[in-house]
Amino acid sequence: MSLGPGAGDPERAPLRVAVVGARGRMGREAVRAVSAAEDLELVAEIGRGDDLGDAVGADVLVDLTVPSSVMGNVEFALTHDLHVVTGTTGWDAERYETLRGWSASAPHLGVLVATNFGLGAVLVMQFARQAARFFESVEVVETHHPGKVDAPSGSAVRTAQLIAAARAEAGLGDVPDATEQQLDGARGTVVDGIHVHALRVRGATAHQEVVLGGPGETLTLRDDTYDRAAYMPGLLLGVREVVSRPGVTIGLEHYLDLG
User: Fold this and answer.
1) What pTM was computed for the model?
2) CATH number for the 119-226 domain, one of 3.40.190.290, 1.10.3210.10, 3.30.360.10, 3.30.590.20?
3) pLDDT (tens digit, 0 to 9) for every residue of the chain, 259 residues total?
C-alpha cells in the first residue's frame, strides 16, 4: 500500500483538503485525521447549511454527507477544479453515469467513490470476489447501528455486485434456493442475484460477513469495525492518491497494491 504521492516529503506543499459533512460522526473523525497529517492541510470544515464556496481553493474535497446531498457536492467540486473523495452511499447506475459525464468535462480531476474506507472491509470484498467462483452458495449479512439511514449498506451492495460478477465470469448459475413460502423480507433483499441481509442493532458499529458454501463445508469471511478511526487510513490514502488518478474510480481497492 502506497502512502500516495508526496506523503512524507518535506519539499512538497501539503495537499489542501476541504471536508464536507464535517459535523457528522465520520466528518469529525476525518477533520481530526486530516489535521493530524503532516502532508495535508485542512482548509475548510463545511457542515449542513454552510457555503460550499468555502471549499474553493482546496485541492481535494472530501464528501461525507448523505445521498440527497452528494451529487450536488460532487458537481460543485468538479466545476470548481477540486478532486473528490466521497464515502457517501446511495450510488446507483444512473448516478454513476451522471458522474462520468461530469468527469469527462474535467478529465484532469480525480474522483474516488469509496463504499468503505476500512481496509479490512475492502479486503473482505476482494477475498469474497476471489472465492465466489469456487462455491455454489453465497449470502451477505451486514450489521450496523440503528442510526444508519440506508439498508443494506453501500459496502454490502458493492460486495454482492462483485460476487455476482465473479460468478458470472466463472459461468455459475443461480445460487440454489428452494424457498416457496416466506414472509416479506425473510430472505433479505436481492442484489444481482445475491441475497443480502441487513441488521440494525444498538451497540454495533459496522460489521459484514460473507458466507459461502459448497458440498460439506462453508467459508465465512468477516470484518468487524468498532471505531470510526478504522476508516481513516483508507480515507487519507484516498486523499493522497486521488490527485494523481484522473477520472472516476469506484472502490478503494483500486488504490491498494493487491497484485
Assistant:
1) 0.83
2) 3.30.360.10
3) 434 444 545 567 999 999 999 999 999 999 999 999 999 999 999 999 899 999 999 999 999 999 999 999 999 999 999 999 999 988 889 999 999 999 999 999 999 999 899 999 999 999 999 999 999 999 999 999 999 988 999 899 999 999 999 999 999 999 999 999 999 999 999 999 999 999 999 999 999 999 999 999 999 999 999 999 999 999 999 999 999 999 999 999 999 988 6
Question: Would you name the residues annotated as active-site residues?
Answer: 144, 148
- Provide the β-strand partners of residue 247: 110
The DSSP call for residue 130 is H
By CB atoms closer than 10 A (0-12, 13-18, 19+), residue 54 is middle
| Domain 15-117+229-255: assigned CATH number | 3.40.50.720
